[in-house]
Amino acid sequence: MTLTSQQRFDDQNYQFRNQLEELQEAQLDNKKDQQFIEQLQERFYALQQQEQRIYQESLNEVESEERAFFEERQDDSFHLSRQALQEFEEEQEQLAQDRKNLLEKEDFVRSEQRNFLKSEGREPSNGT
């Protein structure tokens, strides 16, 4: 079966629209992931503040010979917190890079679609 030029045009234009929808869905997923990481960071920060307060209260109430034990635990906790924050930052950087790549791909597909429409003698519209 041979496709008419209109059918080929519609098929190609449909493929462009599908690619754009997939990229926009990926961008939405990326945005949700970024928001989730931000929420985790906020919760982590609140827990970190609470933990620091508890350590400080413990240090104020323990005997001097037990103080070193709590100070060591606090140092360990601080080190682990820094690692976790670094992982959050790395995840955010990766998500930002992914978002940039998705936007570039979307721009490329839109450009290809415009070129296709021009080559077919049709003007691009907002709906395509």
Description:
The protein has 128 residues and is mainly alpha-helical. It has helices at residues 5-61, 64-119. Helix 1 (5-61) packs antiparallel against helix 2 (64-119). The protein starts with a helix and ends in a 9-residue tail after the last helix.
Give a quick rundown of the structure.
The chain has 128 residues and is an all-alpha fold. It has helices at residues 5-61, 64-119.
In this structure, how is the largest beta sheet organized? none
Helix count from the secondary structure assignment:
2
Q: Residue ranges: pLDDT <50 for 5 or more in a row? A: none
Task: Give the averaged pLDDT, no decimals.
Answer: 91
User: How much helicity do the residues have?
Assistant: over 70%
Radius of gyration: 27 Å
Number of β-strand runs: 0
Shape: rod-shaped
Order of helices and strands: HH
Please specify the SSE layout and strand pairing.
Elements: H1 5-61, H2 64-119
Helix pairs in contact: 1-2
Output the keywords.
88% helix; rod-shaped; 128 residues; single chain; 0% strand; mainly alpha
